[in-house]
Amino acid sequence: MRQRTGSNRSWPAGTFLSRLSEQSRAKLLGLGQFHPVPPQRELVRQGEPGGSVWLLIDALVKVSARVENGTEALLALRVSGDLIGEMAVLGEPVRSATVTTCGRAVVSQIKGGVFVDFLQQDPAVALTLNQMTIERLRWSNQRRLDFAGYETSRCLARVMLALAGRHGQPRPDGIDLGIPLTQAELGGLVGAKEATVQKALRVLTSMGLVTTPGRRRVVITDVEGLRTFADLSRFGQVTANPD
Asked: Whole-model pTM?
């Protein structure tokens, strides 16, 4: 366990733990209790009070929320090195979303009061958390802009490129998104029903831009072509994470 949870471990780029200094990271990792968690287990549940934050040590989780009519939307994905549950500790009275493990996971649970004290003692970490929150807000705002300005197939292309840029894995046939997602879950990310996502995927497949070699896999076979289709060719390039 020590090798997998040490402060000098290489954490995925962009995650909370990857942004901290080794000293701050080691202190934060020492504040919590480590727990193995089985697949499909809810770490936090929408509407419940929040008493802890969770560091994802070895984990892939889905963040989802349900509206009054019962519809559930996939809001985000979080990976090893990410922090979840901080909003209900720092201000909101209850959890705003449900977080569910996608597979076997190891997490660190830190009591809310302990986490707040840590932030007060280490302003650099508090600033990092604030920057991360702003980036998550920008992601949400960008998705809203996409929904307003583009049809589903282009919204889907934009989301897949964003996911590949952070989680993608190079494969002989292209770039795997690196995250197992059903078509219904992809629909949750772009605000579309599963049938609409199926139609959009058929469009992208017929154009030679993506393939779906498995029920929960999507591979981008033509990154530049997908960027052009998504109207993103003016912006940076997608670089998959190395294995």
From this structure: 0.75
Residues 122 and 125: their CA atoms lie apart, in Å, by 6
C-alpha 159/C-alpha 185 separation (Å) is 12
pLDDT at 236: 47
Name the residue among 133, 118, 117, 131 with its Cα closest to residue 85.
Answer: 133
pLDDT at 239 over 60: no
| 235/221 Cα distance (integer angstroms) | 19
pLDDT in tens, 90-126: 887 889 899 999 888 999 999 999 999 999 999 999 9
Query: Which residues neighbour 194 within 8 Å (Cβ) at sequence distance 6 or greater?
Result: 183, 184, 187
Q: What gap in Å lies between CA 159 and CA 146, rounded to an integer?
A: 9
- The answer to whether residues 55 and 178 touch, using CB atoms and an 8 Å cutoff, is no
Contact indicator for 163, 177 with CB cutoff of 8 Å: yes
CB crowding 208-217: b at 16 or more within 10 Å, else e: ebbbeeeeee
* 3-state secondary structure at position 57: strand
Q: Are 53 and 98 in contact (CB under 8 A)?
A: no
Q: Residue for token digits 């009275």?
A: 93
d(CA 58, CA 38): 12
Do the beta carbons of residue 135 and residue 149 sit within 8 Å?
no
Q: Counting beta carbons within 10 angstroms of the beta carbon of residue 44, is it exposed (0 to 12), middle (13 to 18) or buried (19 or more)?
A: buried
